[in-house]
Amino acid sequence: MTTAESIPDVLQRVRATFTTGKTRPIEWRLHQLGELARMMREHEADFAEALQADLHKGSFETALSELGFVASEAKYASKHLHRWARPKRVTTPMMALPGSSYIQPEPKGVVLIIAPWNYPLSMVCAPLVGAIAAGNCAVMKPSEVTTNTSAAIARILPRYLDKDAFAVVEGGVPETTELLENQFDHILYTGNERVARIVMTAAAKHLTPCTLELGGKSPCLVDKSANLEVAASRIAWGKFINAGQTCVAPDHVLVHKAVATQFTELLAAKIKEFYGEDPGQSPDYCRIASERHAARFARLLEGQRIHTGGQVDVAKRYVAPTIVLDPAPDSELMQEEIFGPVLPIITVDEMHHAIKFVADRPKPLALYLFTKSKALEAAVLDKLSAGSVCINDAVIFMVSPELPFGGIGNSGMGRYTGWYGFETFSHMKPVMKRGFRFDAPMRYPPYNDFKRRFMELVR
């Protein structure tokens, strides 16, 4: 394990590697991306064992949301990297003719990736894909909460990626604090708003740009026109995958009163269909990351009107898939991001009340709408802002490398995945090139009215 005292030496080694230009050739980048994908294939069993120990994550969910997500990102970046890295020609204004102008992507340098515990493998390696594609060196800090996955990454990743260009730093607060004392060329942090403020404060000392992937209370609006059977299936899947520990999971549902009872019963039936009579016995249902987080849910559920579930076993880190009916807006459950398998259902008289409910609160990371009404769809898109919007489904937008992933306001800043990851970790360097054959005297002093009129004409 890397100690806080050894971090400066690690950073010096990685910085020296970047200075040599080793990471710039496209073929080197493609090789590293290929090795990252190969690591996912060859150590599927090792990572699955670690994720099972940390989160009780089943094999299907591990393949879908961890290993497969990273492999897909690496494959997509490899396919498009030559095109992404090419200079892009842009128009040259008349005043600068003859000449040419273009934008040349270049790597930023040494980047820091601080990952969360909810997807402890993919949230290290998916951002890493963009950093590699852009030609950077990278230092990765896995979460200390999911110790088994952190140890697996630290043990396995150096066998595949260039050890001089990439480093994994394990540990907790002291190691993270020491990392943030040092200068990086970009920081990508995924986690909560409180720690994000600490990261930004530390980055400000070095004027380091940040990408912050946070969260918030992502609302889900269900209109009376929606296909309730399909809506219940998709919402249950999006909410209870990874036991609700997903930053883009539906946080609460605002459902039209005309279908509220029917929708709630369908949702409860889907939970039973997915996870059985006792979800605690299901191989497909995850656990909470720590006893401390599990105890939090016992507190959040106190005094709530529970329709389904509600069982909490702190020692086993188990919280049942739970439906809560109409919690008070000022309750703790509705004031902070739930980030777990508890889903409040709030009945609204009209959908414009739901729109106002969302508009009056901080901008979420994700916003979900289930409806057949084009007018309601247009109203939601026009009046509400969110990091991402998904209509008639939940969470599934994350599988598209063509869509950027990122927040807005309290839910974060910046974006990555696909091209947007390459762009985030690149400096888009503007270049204008001119020759010596023609040098217009009009721009040089002494100035007169003729020169002024000429410049107004050509600029």
Textual characterization of the structure:
The strands form 4 sheets. Strands 10-13-14-9-8-15-16 form a 7-stranded mixed β-sheet, sandwiched between helices. The protein folds into 2 domains: 4-214 and 409-431, Aldehyde Dehydrogenase, Chain A, domain 1, CATH 3.40.605; 219-399, Aldehyde Dehydrogenase, Chain A, domain 2 (3-Layer(aba) Sandwich), CATH 3.40.309. The longest helix has 27 residues, at 59-85. It has helices at 7-19, 26-42, 44-55, 59-85, 122-133, 147-156, 173-181, 193-205, 228-240, 260-275, 291-300, 332-335, 351-359, 374-383, 419-424, 449-458; strands spanning 88-90, 99-107, 110-114, 137-141, 166-168, 186-190, 210-213, 219-222, 252-256, 306-308, 312-313, 318-319, 322-325, 342-348, 366-370, 388-391, 412-413, 426-434. With 459 residues, the chain is α/β, with parallel strands linked by helices. The radius of gyration is 25 Å and the shape is globular. The model has no long low-confidence stretch (mean pLDDT 96). It starts with 6 loop residues before the first helix and ends with a helix. It has 16 helices and 18 strands.
